[in-house]
Automatic annotation (TrEMBL):
Residues 126-223 form the Acyl-CoA oxidase/dehydrogenase middle domain. One of its GO terms (molecular function) is oxidoreductase activity. Residues 9-115 form the Acyl-CoA dehydrogenase/oxidase N-terminal domain. Belongs to the acyl-CoA dehydrogenase family. The lineage of its organism: Bacteria, Bacillati, Actinomycetota, Actinomycetes, Kitasatosporales. Its EC number is 1.-.-.-. Residues 258-402 form the Acyl-CoA dehydrogenase/oxidase C-terminal domain. This is Acyl-CoA dehydrogenase family protein.
Length: 408
């Protein structure tokens, strides 16, 4: 008989505690400094690589954990440490998932190791889908990939924006339009290998939060790529485009495009990051409320404060359960019939934003200063209702999935 448990097994607890140690001892003491510097924290990522935490092997091990909880558990602990540093350590994962979801075995074997490098020579990767006029509306994408059959090369032109690690990555995964007639179904993903001429970093953004994470435009100016850089290969693309053209002609059912498949696979992972930030802020607030004395008693003695903490903790646990369910479903191959991945990201993102705001309130004036970490956590949390699909887009996905109505 199948056994049901909601406890992590011994191996998982060991990994969680190991990551927690790194988060507490390496990330937390460095968090405020890198937030102020607003630069990519190479020494922290290098230290994570040195102990094997930033490595393809580690992510592969967690990714293939049969319970599905390896990745969310790791994410929660890292982002409990710090979100900006956490994103610097995990940002490569989005590009890696892009290759895992769309690439051939040979492409996975060639490019994933080059995305991470090794402890002696750490590398990072970037996933570039968003454009200045194509954020939530992926179908408005303009970056064009044109096939030069004589040379078996693809030529890419366009501007990508908001790319995490964009321009400083060793490997860029770029989504581009191969057939403009097909909208989002006419897209394909490409590997841009290290040092490819024509790819450059545009503006680097100064941000409200997650400031240790590098976010920039990526300009593609006549970038020529060998045919083997098309993820999935030309035959598979031709078959997919032929099916999409047939569907467009006959009005058949829609299917996910490459970029959407990548986002869908990573939503519970992003939700787990938000849970980590929320938990960190809640812990600071709980501790503060027990020690801060006003009117002759700790402020937690007031129901007005204690009930807020009760709500915060309840929301965090509920968010984690949604994240774990979605991660388990993905690993078990269960269909997301109610958009459970989007649900988990929606609820966890909103929870992080709300809980960090409550934590700031509980810390009063101290919460508003950079003497305490909740101010940074609140700034960091704000991105979790925006990137990887805004909260509105998650609601749209859920509403369409549960109703089968093409709600706008
Ligand atoms: C720090 C950071 C890192 C990022 N990293 C990456 C990355 O690595 N790779 C990448 O490709 N992208 C990345 N992004 C882009 C991110 O995914 C987009 O910002 C996000 O998808 C929203 O797009 P947008 O900013 O253009 O907002 P818009 O799409 O312009 O939306 C504006 C507002 O309108 C709402 N809205 C839009 N359409 C609808 C609708 N149909 N119904 C209801 N409301 C709607 C939105 O919810 C939002 O509130 C990153 C962004 C940031 C800020």
């Amino acid at each position: 008989m199948a056994e049901f448990t909601m406890e992590l097994n011994e191996d998982q607890r060991g990994v969680r505690d190991w990551i927690h140690g790194f988060a507490a001892e390496v990330m937390r003491p460095a968090a405020a400094e890198w937030d102020e510097r607003e630069e990519f924290p190479w020494p922290v990522v290098q230290e994570a690589a040195r102990i094997g935490l930033y490595s393809l092997d580690f992510y592969a091990q967690q990714f293939f954990d049969p319970t599905g909880l390896g990745i969310p558990m790791a994410m929660e602990e890292l982002f409990w440490g710090d979100a900006g540093l956490g994103l610097a350590i995990t940002g490569t994962g989005l590009a890696a998932i892009g290759v895992l979801t769309n690439g051939t075995e040979e492409q996975i074997g060639t490019w994933l190791p080059q995305m991470y490098g090794d402890a002696a020579d750490v590398k990072i990767a970037a996933f570039c889908s968003s454009e200045p006029d194509a954020g939530s509306d992926v179908s408005a994408m303009r970056t064009r990939a044109v096939y030069d059959e004589a040379k078996d090369e693809w030529v890419l032109n366009g501007t990508k924006t908001w790319a995490t690690n964009g321009g400083i990555a060793n490997v860029h995964v770029v989504v581009a339009v191969v057939d403009p007639e097909l909208g989002a179904r006419g897209h394909a993903s490409f590997i841009v290998p290290p040092g490819t001429p024509g790819l450059s970093q545009g503006q680097k953004f100064k941000k409200h939060g997650i400031r240790a994470s590098h976010t920039a435009e990526v300009v593609l100016d006549g970038v020529r790529l060998p045919g083997h850089c098309l993820l999935g290969g030309k035959d598979k693309l031709d078959e997919r485009l032929a099916r999409a053209r047939e569907r467009a002609r006959t009005g058949g059912a829609r299917t996910q495009n490459a970029a959407m498949a990548t986002f869908e696979a990573s939503r519970p992972t992003v939700g787990a990051q938000a849970v980590g930030i929320a938990r960190a802020a809640y812990e600071v607030a709980l501790d503060y409320a027990q020690t801060r004395v006003q009117f002759g008693r700790p402020v937690i003695d007031n129901q007005g404060v204690a009930f807020q903490l009760a709500d915060m903790r309840t929301r965090i646990d509920a968010a984690r359960l949604l994240v774990w369910r979605a991660s388990w479903m993905a690993t078990a191959g269960k269909p997301f019939t109610s958009a459970e991945g989007s649900m988990s990201k929606l609820f966890a993102g909103e929870t992080a934003k709300a809980v960090t705001a409550q934590a700031m309130q509980i810390l009063g004036g101290n919460g508003y200063t950079r003497e305490y970490p909740v101010e940074r956590m609140h700034r960091d949390a704000a991105i979790y209702t925006i990137f990887e699909g805004t909260s509105e887009i998650q609601r749209l996905v859920i509403a369409r999935t549960i109703s089968d109505v093409p709600i706008r």
